[in-house]
Specification:
The protein is of the alpha+beta class and about 475 residues long. It is about 25% helix and about 25% strand. A hairpin with a 6-residue loop joins strand 1 and strand 2.
Length: about 475
């Protein structure tokens, strides 16, 4: 057997759920804890011979789970023995059983998956409102889903409302978070993980976020006030800077915040400044949160419960969320760890359907010339055979579609204007189809990533905050 990866170390806390059947240990079921990772396997899923049941539970016995075995034997397949005397395999341990350990059941997860073991905190930052103005989100559904993996504790859900429209409100907000942050840090310990959702509205014309509510100028009541993205995010997140480091953050905000260059840059700067492990945003101008429910649940299962790398597993998340692509594009932001610079890799994914969204480009719902709907003819595809760089979709020896030509099928299209039937062309943009996210009805198109490196800022922070406060009135609605 190949030596186990050097990064494998014994962990203090283990999962409560078998990595094969995802069930717990009840009654006579034994959970065998891996000595190289937090995974466990139950006595129903591995068939320990009756004569060795007591022997494998002795203090000097080391258990090497199927996930660790699969990694160690990746390049050189080897039988799975599971239990070893006086050490792990490759480190002096010798197999306890005279023959390989027989598996029962089907392995449904990736070999790198680790069922939830370390504490998790889900933080939901919510724009303060009153009554029906409170934003309704599927975050509570995700909290219930995650809670099932920690029946004896270990998972905590925290809601934090904010209103940062004045200095007095900011001071009150900061004061209120002191004890809460201390409690969260105590719960997380040294191994805990954090996922945060940020629920807000954005100003469509400029992309600013809303900071809270303030009295209307005519004194007739309250109204939401839009403020610069940098001010809102910095003010809301700063008390939680230690908590949010290496956190996964999902922005439940309409797409205008990423549609405008300045506000998108401020969002990316905040992601870098607070050292998020990842951030996700959506481009829909009127983002509907419930449409993304399946995406959020898949994210919770694969990234939070199984602890898979978010960028690596992102195509699978999208494949499980086909309807989300009908509504919005999805932007994934992660630190570029391969670069010596502190920069962010930002990748946009768009649903691709050969008839309605080739390469993620929307086909018009209505002919602009005659007004008919669903009148486009079957497209005409023009192809080339050379210079294909699309490693995920095709090779140079296969034809590559470069454009689609559509024409209106309405018989009287253009008659009133004495024009021919309307036609238009969609050219293939840079990027590629993601094979692992393909479905029977389409797939997802990945645009080339952009690398964001913030420019140095000048000026004192107090002056920037004062400017942001004064500018807030311009976004008042």
């Amino acid at each position: 057997m190949a030596e186990p990866p050097s990064a494998l170390e014994a962990r203090d806390s283990h999962s409560m759920w078998c990595m094969i059947c995802r069930d717990g240990g009840e009654g006579t079921i034994i959970l065998y804890e891996c000595n190289a990772c937090p995974r466990v396997m139950c006595s129903k899923c591995i068939e320990v011979p009756e004569a060795f049941v007591d022997a494998v539970q002795r203090p000097n016995i080391y258990f090497f789970c199927l996930g660790c075995h699969s990694k160690a034997a990746l390049k050189s397949p080897a039988p799975f023995f599971g239990f070893f005397n006086d050490g792990l395999p490759g480190l002096g341990g010798k197999a306890v059983l005279p023959h390989f350990l027989r598996l029962n059941g089907k392995y449904e997860m990736a070999s790198s998956s680790i069922m939830a073991a370390t504490p998790i905190i889900l933080i939901h930052f919510i724009l303060a409102g009153d009554g029906d103005d409170t934003i309704c989100t599927p975050v509570t559904l995700i909290s219930k889903f995650l809670g099932t993996f920690y029946p004896n504790g270990g998972f905590t859900y925290v809601e934090i409302t904010f209103d940062v429209t004045s200095h007095d409100k900011i001071d009150a907000y900061n004061l209120l978070q002191v004890d809460r942050v201390a409690q969260i840090m105590q719960h997380l310990g040294s191994t805990g993980r954090v996922v945060a959702f940020f629920s807000n509205h954005s100003e469509q014309d400029c992309g600013w976020l809303y900071g809270g509510q303030a009295p209307k100028e005519d004194g007739s009541g309250l109204e939401y006030v839009a403020m610069e993205v940098s001010h809102v995010l910095t003010t809301v997140f700063s008390p939680y800077s230690m908590v949010l480091k290496n956190a996964h953050v999902i922005f439940l905000v309409c797409g205008s915040v990423v549609a405008h260059h300045n506000t998108y840059a401020q969002l990316m700067s905040a992601v870098l400044h607070f050292d998020f492990a990842s951030a996700i945003a959506f481009t829909a101008s009127r983002f509907q949160l419930l449409v993304a429910s399946s995406f959020f649940l898949a994210f919770a299962e694969l990234v939070l419960v199984e602890q898979l790398c978010v960028r690596v597993t992102f195509p699978e998340l999208l494949a499980l969320s086909g309807r989300l692509g009908l509504h919005t594009k999805v932007i994934l932001m992660t630190p570029d760890t391969a670069s010596p610079h502190h920069q962010l890799e930002c990748t946009t994914f768009a649903r691709a359907h050969t008839q309605t969204q080739p390469w993620g480009v929307d086909v018009p719902a209505q002919c602009p010339q005659c007004g008919s709907t669903k009148s486009w003819s079957e497209k005409v595809a023009l192809t080339v055979h050379a210079d294909s760089n699309d490693s995920d979709e095709s090779s140079a020896s296969q034809p590559t579609v470069t454009r689609y030509v559509y024409s209106c099928k309405y018989t009287n299209c253009g008659t009133a204007q004495r024009l021919p039937a309307y036609k238009f062309i969609i050219e293939r943009p840079p990027g590629f189809m993601v094979n692992s996210a393909r479905t029977t009805k389409g797939g997802w198109f990945q645009s080339p990533s952009i690398m964001y490196l913030p420019s140095p800022t000048k000026g004192k922070r107090k002056n920037q905050e004062a400017t942001s406060m004064r500018s807030a009135k311009k976004g008042r609605k």
